Amino acid sequence: MKSFWPRLVFFILLIGLSSPAMSDDMVLKGPAESWVTQVDIPAADPTRSDQIKNGVSWLLSDDQIKHRAGGYVEYSRTVYKIVDRPGLDRGASIDLQFDPSRHKVTLNHLHIIRDGAVLDRLEDVEFDIFRRERDAEKGVFDGWLTAHVNIDDVRAGDIVDYGSTYEITPLVGKDLFFKNFSTEWEEPVALIRTSIIWPSGQPLETKTRGTQLKPSISSTGPDTTYLWEIPNPKPVNVEDNLPATYPGWGSIDVASTGNWQSVVDAVAPYYKPATVFPSAFAAKLDDIALRHPVPEDRMVEAMRLVQDQIRYVSLSMGAGSYIPRDPATVILSGFGDCKDKALLLVSSLVRLGIAAEVALADLDEGRALDQHLPALRDFDHAIVKARIGTKTYWLDATDYLQGGKAPNLAQSDYGFALPLSSTGGLEKMPSPVLTSPSIQIAEDFDFPRKPGDPLALTVFSTYQDADADWMRGNLASRSLSEVSDAYLKYYNKQYPGIQTVAKPEIVDRRDDNIVSVKESYRLPAEALAANDLAKNFPIRAADLGNNSLPTPTIVDRTGPVSIGPQFYRRHKITVRNLKARFSGESMKNVVTPYLSLKASWSNTPTEFQVEWNFQSLATEVPAKAIADYLKTVDDVADEIRWQYDFTYEEPPADVQLSDPAKEQRQTVANMLLLSLLVGVPLFIAYRRGKRRAFGS
Fold first, then answer.
1. What range does the domain containing 562 cover?
2. Model's pTM, two decimal places?
């Protein structure tokens, strides 16, 4: 019962965050503003009707933006046709999502066009306002709301046409404007249109990605209008596993600045290191300073203090999306998000005499930040840049139970980051280079020495660096019994009937950042004999990482495939108490510019050992090489799985095996010898007889 109440409270919280929360007067109804241009509804391209998905044919996507003091207004209009029954499920309702702290939303019109007649449904609209915290289980709360509208009496063949206006007041960086839009969709659309009206004295920057489309620019009075119109763009096939640096579809950035310093200036004042801490926390920092005179050790201890003692919860509502809470508040509450924890760690490091600053990053798209225009919305994460002497360290305060000291610390690697005080520009975080395996698995099989004894299996797993951090967190989140059961299930699939001898033994050398796990199993004699398991004994390499490699289709593929960060793993298998020498000469290396699997083996009369080393040699594969890459993935899978008949016995050394060819050669030799023994004396006697006859 003790663990039931937290779950119940959390469940009630989720219900509250996912249910109707506010009255429908939070979203208004009324006409669009006078500056909005009403565009004629274009016709769909009939040649692309076979590419329509889910019963909806898109006709118009029209975004119009106009600057105003302290923000801007955005009018959006969407028009689509419901072509069949599945389209009713998708198109008979609309959702308007908004942040009530900075958005004022008005639904301007809702029309149903049926057989050429326009039916006005705006007056009948009722809004159901929901707060759906989609990432609540991850501890992230953003406060966004959804206004849901269910449209009555919608039929197949109807055209739905609705428009809405958002009055947007930025809470941070009020002078910063940013808009990104796609120039092509996965589905047919008759027209994509975007227009931005902005003061001529504040010219906008534009940057294309995956397209060369330029705007039409015109001026009227004090304003300049930037207009993009894209009629009937060809639907794009969005490919899986693309690197962040490769644009999967065309898009355009529009921003009020091309200088990253503008973003720094907007938020840096909120990230100044704190100098006052609650007394208990200050005492911990002072103790670190006393016990660790070396700056690098102080840095690691402060990082662990913030990581391990402040849990992660993100209250990113309103200005909390960009502004951290005061470090003292974070300490007293015991929780914080990436911004809160980054500022707390920076403040702690500065108190310990270490230069540090908060840096903004993006977890998924950080490697492509340099391909975008500066904007606050480019970032979804905050980390720490620390500097000791000439050495720079990138630290993530939201990590948990991180190990290692400064020389072997697994640092953040999200691509580019934007430090908030030192450079005013993007900085590239270095990617780690693995020179030795970070995961090593050793499986030792001891076959029974006499009938009736069990087979023994001992597994030694060693995790280093970032993989040790991952394993440490993984083990901390599960019970030892759960870990043991998971391991047993894995081996039972290969060796049915195998049993656990003891719970896994775990050794964590945190400062060295090495986690070791020892597993012990026994396979009873009857299980070893069942189904000829010993005669078809499988050996295979696990945890090499090959199962997580992407295997995309190559049909019409145009983009590269991302393999991900570098990995390097080793798996060794030793089989003992054998009665013959076994060979691995059939095992092959698989080496390409992208992946490398190298196998080696050795044997004695009683022992057989195999070792595989597998590593990635690149982070992505070009499109033209994907077919070869996919073959490599298959070859690797084949080369790390083998079967042996370990019941085979070599005959004793004093037993001669028959060799037909050898026996035939021996017979011929014996006949020759017999011929010599018999024929030579007869020949000599014959010659002597001849001499006597001639001499008489």
1. 439-644
2. 0.86
